[in-house]
Amino acid sequence: MVVAKLVCAILVMEIIGSRLRLGVDGLRMNYYLMSCPLAEPIVKNTVTSALQSDPTLAAGLVRMHFHDCFIQGCDASVLIDSTKDNTAEKDSPANLSLRGYEIIDDAKEQLEQQCPGVVSCADIVAMAARDAIFFAGGPVYDIPKGRKDGRRSKIEDTINLPPPFFNSSDLIKMFGLHGFSVQEMVALSGAHTLGVARCSSFKNRLSKFDSTHDVDPSLDSNFAKSLSRTCSAGDNAEQPFDTTRNDFDNDYYNALTKKAGVLTSDQTLYASPQTRGIVNAYAFNQARFFFDFQQAMVKMSLLDVKEGSNGEVRKICRQIN
Q: pTM value?
């Protein structure tokens, strides 16, 4: 398994590297080589230390990166605090469960001491997600750096995040608007191999589901009972997406094949003929999932990046300069 992961990683890094050595949109793998050579070790050590204390934060860092990139691009807008004049993205109901902000703050503080005004918060978020995936047992991959931080963060923009009740057609359409293929969408959904969902996001599946079914028929009956027990503790009760909540593996896809997807937007990937074959492939072959996932993550990290005067390098990640 270790050899397979290393071979997979080398192949992906060669494919991506050949495309990005000269930079895509001005980004480069070695962007901080001269200006802040310790940037990546500082971020990795900060993430590793935090996850050793609390491995559940890996899911938070990965989700933070996703929620950042899908709103105005990968520009760390998700980190900005609200003010009396503006309600920011992080205070949207869709983002209230995000965790790990203190890890980003810690890394940024160290980087500002090492090389002031050089490393963007957007790059820190992207690197932290990558390092969290590796810490949890997932694939190793590199990403180009050089993103600038955005100056806009508004709660109304979070309408562009995929909600938990989306079906496969909705997901294909939304991800397609960002340039992702169906396969890339299914691969990125595999990030749900880490973390939990709150009852409020799936309780609609457990009673009065539709005019002909009380319980969502795509749910295994025993798993539905398990979800009901979880929800007996209230809307904030947490349910792991799969049986290995802190391990990055393909157990998420195996759960879908057993009709044990927690969210509608999870189980729809197996229920739909458009995506079922991809789910089966990833459930059968973890190396294939890792390969496709890391390629999709690099692609996501390049969404609508800001450069030059279109962005800035924040001194404090929680506020615009």
A: 0.90
> Residue 114: what residue type?
Q
Strands (E), the chain: 196-198, 238-240
Catalytic, out of 67, 178, 192, 213: 67
Tokens 């993205």, located at residue: 89
**Element (DSSP H or E) covering residue 129:** helix 121-135
Tokens standing for 37?
């050579």
Distance (Å, whole) CA 148 – CA 309: 9
| Residues 282-314 as b or e (16 or more Cβ within 10 Å = b) | bbeebeebbbbbbbbbbbbbbbbbbeeeebbbb
Instruction: Tell me, yes or no, if 65 is annotated catalytic.
Output: no
Read off the pLDDT of residues 225-254 as tens digits, 9 standing for 90 and up: 999 999 999 999 999 999 999 999 999 999
User: Nearest 5°: CA angle at 277, between 271 and 280?
Assistant: 90
Residues 6+ apart with CB under 8 A from 37: none
Dihedral angle of Cα 291, 296, 297, 300, to the nearest 10 degrees: 170
What is the H or E stretch that residue 299 is in? helix 286-300
Q: In sequence order, which residues have a C-beta less than 8 Å from that of residue 60 and are 6 or more positions away?
A: 98, 99, 100, 195
Angle between helices 39-53 and 101-114 (to 10 degrees): 150
